[in-house]
Amino acid sequence: MPQANILRPVPLEADWREQLRNVITDGPSLLAELGLDAAALGFSEQACRDFSLRVPRAFVRRMRPGDPNDPLLRQVLAIGDELTSPAGYGPDPTGETGGAIARAGIIHKYRGRLLLVVTGGCAINCRYCFRRHFPYGDNQNSRREWRQALDYVANDPSITEVILSGGDPLVADDDYLAELCGHIAAIPHVRRLRVHSRLPIVLPDRVTPELLSALSPAGLQTVMVVHCNHANELDTDVARAFAHIRERGITLLNQSVLLAGVNDSVAALVALSEALFAHGALPYYLHLLDKVRGAAHFDLPEQRARELHAAITAELPGYLVPKLVREIAGEPAKTPISPARGPH
Ligand SMILES: *Cc1c(COP(=O)(O)O)cnc(C)c1O
Ligand code: SF4
């Protein structure tokens, strides 16, 4: 794609807030726009009542009209399969509502780094999300509650990295983020700020100069981990957002979830890694699905995941192979999944 296009400046009157207000929440009209039949695709209003349908138009524009198997549509469409609840799929597969919540709004599971739950909101509702049942109401950090969370970080010198998470932390506005990041930067033992967000993918106009300033306080190195599962999610708008992020010296990584019917083929995973690098991001993690209730239809056998990972390892340079990991409650880090054994 042409460089001139990628480097076109973000318009000053960036309308991300309006786009956020105008996300699509109505399944039948989304499907009608794509020329698809709601009944044939298994669309379910009941599944929407459990976890609402929510998708920005900027993301819908990258879906292929008339394709019932579109990998982007599959990630956001509420279907009847979600209403089945096979054994082993629970409301809190990663154990976040257990002992890991040290204070309201903090998840401190791993040594040296912790998650700050900045907001419960997301621009998009991904049907496989492990936080679809997370009690965000109890973890909304108001400015007043920051004090507590920041004191917790300040009082633990082992914490060198603070991760802004959610929901999606970039749903919060720039002033809020600038103030929060300024407070984090003022804690002497914190060296890195990490931001986990899907917004640069699903609503790339969110990446404004003001946002990037807020996320780059003096004295901290910033890492942004975006979340993209399929090469079709990456277009020229995303490329432009990525370029702006990188121009600020922010390290740009991607995490994906391995999802049946979305990216569970060697071709899809190779194309994803290649497209990420072409757009300026490095693959970081490929997560096995967290066994959250309502998402069982996205799961695939662990052996199949190992085989896919072995196959992409054989196809790609090492730096384009994401680490295949699973989140196991109580473990000190994400658990790497060892490669497939035996004949291929
Ligand atoms: C995934 C996660 C992290 C970050 O882990 P890394 O392996 O450093 O990317 C930190 N805290 C929690 C609670 C997490 O779930
Ligand atoms: S953007 Fe992230 S937190 Fe929000 S629904 Fe999707 S996967 Fe879950």
Automatic annotation (TrEMBL):
Iron-sulfur listed as a keyword: yes
Name the cofactor(s): [4Fe-4S] cluster; pyridoxal 5'-phosphate
Q: Name one GO molecular function term.
A: metal ion binding
Query: Mind telling me which InterPro entries this protein's record contains?
Result: Aldolase_TIM, EpmB, Lys_aminomutase/Glu_NH3_mut, rSAM, rSAM_sf
Per UniProt, where does [4Fe-4S] cluster bind? 122, 126, 129
The record's keywords, sorted A to Z, are: 4Fe-4S, Iron, Iron-sulfur, Isomerase, Metal-binding, Pyridoxal phosphate, S-adenosyl-L-methionine
Which Pfam families does the protein's record reference?
Radical_SAM
- The modified positions for N6-(pyridoxal phosphate)lysine read 334
Q: Which CDD domains match?
A: Radical_SAM
Domain named Radical SAM core is located at 108-331
Q: Which reaction does it catalyse?
A: L-lysine = D-beta-lysine
State the similarity comment: Belongs to the radical SAM superfamily. KamA family.
Q: Which PANTHER family match?
A: L-LYSINE 2,3-AMINOMUTASE, LYSINE 2,3-AMINOMUTASE-RELATED
Name it. L-lysine 2,3-aminomutase
**What is the source species?**
Parahaliea mediterranea
Which gene is transcribed and translated to give this protein?
Answer: epmB
